[in-house]
Amino acid sequence: MKSHDVPEFAVLGHPNEGKSAVVSTLTEDDSVKVSPIPGETTEARVFPVRVDSREIIRFTDTPGFQRPGDTLDWIRAYTGPQERMVQVFCESHAKDQDFRSECELLGPVARGAGIIFVADGSRPVRSNDLKEMEILRLTGRPRMAVINCKTDQEEYLPAWKNEFSKNFNAVRFFNAHSATYGERLRLLESLKAIHQEGQAALEKVIQAFRQDWDRRNEIVTAIICDLIRQCLGHKVKGRFQEKPLDQAAAVELEQRFQTEIAELEKKAHAKIRRLFKHNIFKLDLPEGSIVKEPLFSRRTFQVLGLRPAQLAAAAAAGGGLLGLKLDLATAGLAMGAFTVLGSALGAGSVLLFGEKAAKAKLIGRPLGGYEIRVGAGSGMGLPFILLHRALLYYSYIINWSHGRRDVPAEGFSLSEEQAAEAKTAWIWSGHRKTICVKFFKAARSGRISGQAGKEMSRMLQEVLLQLSQTG
Fold this sequence. Notes:
6-stranded mixed beta sheet; 4-stranded mixed beta sheet; 2 domains
């Protein structure tokens, strides 16, 4: 491969070792066919990685070895030019169906691809594994061994490492079902180290990956900020003529407000999912995940909401007041109607630590009617919860490898204690809390393009990068 070419790596190995899952994860492409059934991949297929519509690297998924012993015998008997050995093998066996898989998997190597050899390190090393390793060693191509353990069994790992050290330029652990963004970058760094002639091209690939990730985090930041702005500015209203005030109608308005806010959050989360290229398979959150809990549920506010003292401190830090203001132009209504209204809105909107999540304004009408408006009040609970749920969802999405096809029953859901610890680590430092509150106030007033918006964007991008690196 010349330094100005697009780097290509063929992902090789025995059938059902996780090759396709590795390709899917490295390329962020959930169209790669991943199956637990051996032999599902029968033809080599190239999966390019593009950034800004420009191909920067390609990974080729290949079928597994079928006749490693016969292939190794042919290679050992070959006496022609070393640089043409793989190409001559493919040409010599092109019409032989018995060697169809070997020709498919060695075809990319014949055209200059580097090698990523995938093996399940949780099983014993077999004689065919040794033959496959020897074949790849004799190609002379840059090659890396990837240990992709399918179980927690570790007793065979020393034997795998010993054999890999004899036949490969580098060895990495890489679980295609759980690899984070940072682990994918480190694998690319290792490829650069073993591929001297392609180092310049691979360095550009790594820089492009980082720049693309930063760009995505900028977009996620905009999505989250826009979600908070929309929710803080959102209102539902109804006009009424009845006297006294229709309590059922007030409750219905509040429920409509909550439904519409939840829909705005759902759309924002879907944008984040698409941004990280989860396009085909439905990514359902695991049971127990607090992000799967309804936004306005009691448990959501218990787990993700700030305590009363924290809310008071947050409001003070931002120079704001905490709580709900009811502006009432009675228009002939008795104070009893005000009490009914407060009770109705409190049914679903009074947070467990004393804050009101909704605001109602009654505006007098010339003919004696009135209008009820329900929206996000001046408190800090709802925007903090929207922010925290968005960050939890982001963390879940970026760590859901594309090579994974199942929804875990456990492992991704956070207990209430873990969630509380996570939110403290992510957001609730004094300085970050102050930035959030200032942004919330600016969002309510419609002035988020100023300093508050810039500080919030910078802070969120720092948090997103931290989540990317820690997994």
